[in-house]
Amino acid sequence: MTATSAEPDAVPSAPQTDDPPVSGAARTGAADLPPARHRERLGLAALLLGTAAAYLWNITVNGMGNGFYAAATWSGARDWKALLFGSLDPGNFITVDKPPVSQWVMGLSGQLFGFSSASMLVPQALMAVATVALLYGAVTRVTGNRSAGLLAGFAFAVTPVVAMMFRFNNPDAVMVLLMTAGAYCTVRALPKASVRWLALAGVALGFAFLAKMLEGLMVLPALGLAYLVVAPTTLRHRLAHLLAAAVALVVSSGWYVLLTILWPASSRPYLAGSADNTFMDLVLGYNGFARFLGQNHQGGKRFQLPAGYEMPHMPNPGNAFGSAGAGPTKLFTGEIGFEISWLLPAALLAFALVVFARGRAPRTDLRRGAALVFGLWVLIDGIAFTVMKGGMHAYYTLAIAPAIAALLGLAAHELWVRRGDAFGRIGSAALILAGGLWGFVLLQRNSGWLPWLRWVIAAVAVAAALGLVVAALRRSTRNRMVGMLMAVGVLAALAGSTAYAAATLPRPHTGGSPSVGPARAPESGQASELRRQLNVFGGGAFDPRLLDLLRATNTRWSAAVDRSSNAAELELSTRTPVIAIGGFTSDDPVPTLDEFQRMVRDHEVSYYLVQELKLPDSWKTATNKNAPPGNSTPTASEPGTWRPVGHRDIADWVAAHYTPVLLGNYAVYDLTAPPH
Predict the structure, then answer these.
(1) What are the tens digits of pLDDT across the range 499-544?
(2) Does the CA dihedral 33-36-40-45 come out positive or negative?
(3) Which residues are CB-contacts of 674 (< 8 A; sequence separation ≥ 6)?
């Protein structure tokens, strides 16, 4: 252990106490850092500029990304109320089914620079740069080593799900930035038990809640427990500080909840996804515990097929939802494994190594405190994902990417400090093998892409690990040689993730469930055909005559159509406001028939549209003449054609009073014509 004691930041043994005065090496922080050297400043500049260049390069290849959120961004760029509430349409009929923080960022960019793919997606990429900077700052402050901070920032930037989602327009990017800001503020609060920094962490998490509700708060237990254990003050003061941070969180998020309560419901958009037009019902129901327990509504009961047809069982949709079901392997399999798990085994090992290495340090030890912040973050969020029963998109795991990267930086520094003893060398070997060999396994699952890469990664990782084990047995090995082996091994551990992220960046990503990595061979078989058939529910291609009709309207809304996906695509195609009847799944109780009839009487909407879908012959069942008719009204134009309608009362009323014209796969009812 002679090499360890020679390091300036070695931690002496000390009794565990609640007494506030703790000083010296036990609280290594920014104050102990010497001024950055020229090469260190260049390293940080290269990391930040490199991240910006990689993420901004050809970002418009993703077009409108997720059309659902793109339509809301377009609405926010046109109308301030739509921006405030995150409305899907500038007429402010209904919101998207998430809080509006992400829409505030992208919508304001549209207000300033005009709505476009670039004005919408560039802020997302810049959030990646900000997250990298926060990780660098957090790890550097704790370790007193800027190289460790650079490693953490780089590991985050080369995570495939990060490379995809920070060039996309889902709300996950701003949520993860705010979660990372909360962790950074907590790390800043630890050295001196700063209630101010802890309150700022509460503010960051409050806005993370307003980005994606409860998922933004999943990091909260990790931050609170770390502060409760590590902060250098009495237990009473620690509890009081946590209470103050909780108040800051409630204030920073509660003002918006209060706004939705006090603002008259008649003059604001309906809060999509809620059963009663309240924010908290959305939080606790559709986007909260119902989703976690697999009980959130999916519109299935509303869309009954006509008699004689049955939708086939949907096989595991690997590209859409990663791994189906729940279980401890969920984060390592399917699309989820490709998006987040490259460095996850190494991060879990890193957490254990840092906690073990700091086992004799005082309670207030900052390195162990930071390991608790990021390690508990991974464990708590990871366990939540593995037991989640509802539909889980693989990209949800973006939420643990910063913690994984930070743990690698913390462990790399701890092992570097102890590179002169057996623990540092064997621990480094284990960490390198965990990253390199798991990268080999993941690349093996896509063996047709760069088949040589996995073998190079495995060979280099194994060689570096063996060299470190030999060095541990031969204590005379120079630290310089050990350092070279560690550096080469870390590069091998990062290589798989880096390659997959690099393959992700140039690919176009659109729709609700993008995937990472290189382009894959088209799927074949029943699963592929069923996915192709179901894609038509999202709108698809529109007849140019239909688009011209909507563009020529001058009413508050050009049209009304079931489901937000259809409305969003029509808005983006025509740049006219469209009513999304029933919201995302057509389950929302708006508009009522009376409300819709009033809109028609007041000439607020010009057309009513109904999708008309040709059902595949493979969906036919044995004819059952006694079966009741499915929810397919108004009457379709030919047998085997289905009109999926969520609010049947509205569809029946329109069909009874107006005559449709079929344009493409939409039946179009002119509501400005005299009714029958």
Answers:
(1) 999 999 999 999 888 999 998 766 655 555 555 555 555 656 899 9
(2) positive
(3) none
CA dist list (Å): 566 to 578, 583, 584: 9, 10, 9
For the chain, state the CA radius of gyration.
Answer: 28
- Encoding tokens for residue 144? 């007193």
Handedness of CA 525, 520, 327, 165 (dihedral sign): negative
Mean of all residue pLDDT scores within the chain: 88
pLDDT tens digit sequence for 68-127: 999 999 999 999 999 999 999 999 999 999 999 999 999 999 999 999 999 999 999 999
Cβ distance 602 to 583 under 8 Å? no
Q: Looking at this protein, which amino acid is placed at residue 358?
A: R
Weakest-pLDDT range from 38-47, 288-297, 608-617:
288-297
Placement of tokens 């540092």 in the chain:
424
Pairwise CA distance, residues 474 & 488, whole Å: 20
Q: Are strands 605-611 and 557-562 parallel, antiparallel or unpaired?
A: parallel
Say if residues 494 and 154 touch (Cβ distance below 8 Å).
yes
Whether the CB-CB separation of 189 and 231 falls below 8 Å is answered with yes
| DSSP secondary structure letters along 388-444 | --S---GGGGGGGHHHHHHHHHHHHHHHHHTTTSHHHHHHHHHHHHHHHHHHHHHHH
The DSSP string of 342-404 is GGHHHHHHHHHHHHHHTTTS-TT-HHHHHHHHHHHHHHHHHHHHHH--S---GGGGGGGHHHH
Average pLDDT over residues 403-417: 97
pLDDT tens readout for residues 168-184: 999 999 999 999 999 99
Contact, 658 vs 675, CB < 8 A?
yes
Alpha helix locations (H) across 447-590? 451-473, 479-504, 526-534, 544-551, 564-574
User: In this predicted model, what pLDDT tens digit does every residue of 457-487 receive, in sequence order?
Assistant: 999 999 999 999 999 998 777 889 999 999 9
Per-residue pLDDT for 30 more than 90? no
| Cβ pair 582, 647 in contact under 8 A | yes
